[in-house]
Design brief:
single chain, mainly alpha, 19 helices
């Protein structure tokens, strides 16, 4: 039976106090939680004929993946022929730029390891900045498909579909089907959303952090700990999963220390990925913190979270024509401000998360703070928020907020039009070997 997109029936039960009565915080949903008339009808259809929520989420994820990649293929051919290159003997050459920039590092690390090579763009001293999980998977899959590049593509595609499936299920569980569908579309339509479909570790990281949060919500702490360990082997930012782990565990135990049990110890698995990589760096480079020290070779430095924003605004203010000369700074700053705004709305306003859902915006806020606390100090390119336009995708709870705001048709159509237009321009720019995000 076909189920309409908008299926609004909140699935989260209200918190229950020790006395067995509903918590006053959560038993009265906000105005944004009240179903619309059409959502009530959709929910009725869902109750009558939909008893496979994971299959529904998989279909939604596969649909988003298929449609977006058809668009990416079309833009790739457009960019290739617009570059005045000769018609390729193999069409795969037209798609080679899907593996531009950071993607090259993951493949090189998978084939050659972290040491023993030097080149014009890639050298072992900077390689430690890339965590190993994605490269390990490329190495494993390449035993089957032979070509590491093909392995990287297959892993990225599978990870994106899986990540979108879990994200759809989590959002539908917390809110409703309409919000879940819009969350996927808003995330992938974001101007830098194309990175989730390329041979980067973005989709793998998204899969792991969303899965970890989903397991935390279910109270499956051992599994959440294992997934967190895999996530910290993918990106150091995954260490922030300790924040929602602590909050959600304490919330489920009513913030009472005497209710804490031995299963809280699974939080010790969160840093395992980082500790393992540090041990490897100690053996290979003689420096257990090589992955941190390598950031300096990428002109990264730790600073206060507002410094990168301030420096970017200052550069834009002194640029004669920002739309012609400083689009990267404009893009990075705009991306950061949009995501921060959505996360703030996750705490205040009609679309805010309930307090029992705060593990989501807490992770989102921690993620965006992590991104902007390491601005670029490159005095030549002068892009303080370098890569922030791409890394804000990790703060996915912001897009869940947008998915709820998207009930308003004006917002929905306006966001999609602007985001898709900008993504088309930036993806084409990326395909022409210009760094974006």
């Amino acid at each position: 039976m076909h189920v309409p997109e908008r299926t609004l029936q909140p699935r989260s039960l209200p918190e229950v106090s020790p006395a067995g009565t509903a918590s006053p915080e959560t038993d009265q949903p906000s105005a944004a939680d009240q179903p619309l008339a059409e959502d009530q009808q959709s929910a009725e259809v869902q109750r009558q004929g939909t008893d496979r929520p994971w299959l529904r989420s998989l279909r939604a994820a596969a649909t988003v993946w298929l449609i977006t990649h058809v668009a990416y293929v079309a833009l790739t051919f457009f960019a290739f022929f617009q570059s005045n290159r000769p018609v390729p003997k193999s069409w795969s050459k037209a798609f080679a730029n899907w593996g531009n920039w950071d993607a090259e590092w993951f493949v090189v690390i998978a084939t050659r390891g972290y040491k023993g090579y030097h080149g014009p763009d890639i050298d072992e001293e900077r390689s430690a900045a890339f965590f190993p999980m994605y490269s390990i998977l490329i190495k494993i899959v390449s035993f089957v498909v032979v070509e590491p590049v093909v392995a990287a593509v297959l892993i990225a595609f599978a990870a994106q579909i899986a990540a979108f499936t879990v994200l759809h299920r989590l959002t539908e569980q917390e809110f409703d089907g309409g919000s879940a569908s819009r969350t996927l579309w808003y995330l992938v339509a974001f101007p830098t959303g194309f990175y989730l479909g390329l041979t980067y570790n973005a989709s793998l990281y998204l899969l792991l952090v969303v899965s970890a949060l989903y397991l935390m919500r279910r109270g499956t702490w051992w599994a959440a700990g294992v997934v967190c360990a895999l996530a910290t082997a993918t990106r150091s930012a995954a260490l922030l999963l300790a924040v929602p782990f602590c909050y959600e565990y304490l919330r489920q135990h009513e913030f009472r220390l005497r209710r804490i049990r031995w299963d809280a110890g699974w939080i010790a698995l969160v840093p395992v990925g980082i500790v393992s990589f540090a041990s490897y760096c100690w053996v290979i480079f003689g420096d257990p913190l090589k992955f941190m020290h390598a950031q300096a070779l990428w002109d990264r430095e730790r600073d206060w979270p507002w410094i990168g924003i301030y420096q970017t605004v200052k550069i834009l203010h002194t640029t004669p024509n920002i739309f012609a000369n400083d689009v990267r700074n404009l893009m990075d700053l705009g991306s950061v401000l949009v995501v921060i705004t959505m996360l703030v709305l996750g705490f205040v306003g009609p679309w805010r998360y309930r307090r029992d859902q705060w593990f989501l915006p807490l992770f989102g806020m921690a993620s965006i703070l992590f991104v902007i606390c390491f601005p670029s100090a490159d005095v030549i390119n002068r892009v303080p928020l370098l890569s922030a336009g791409r890394l804000v995708l990790e703060a996915f709870p912001a897009f869940m907020v947008a998915g709820r705001i998207g009930r308003n048709q004006n917002f929905d159509r306006g966001y999609c039009f602007i985001a898709i237009l900008l993504q088309g321009l930036w993806f084409t720019h990326f395909l022409l070997h210009h760094f974006i995000g």
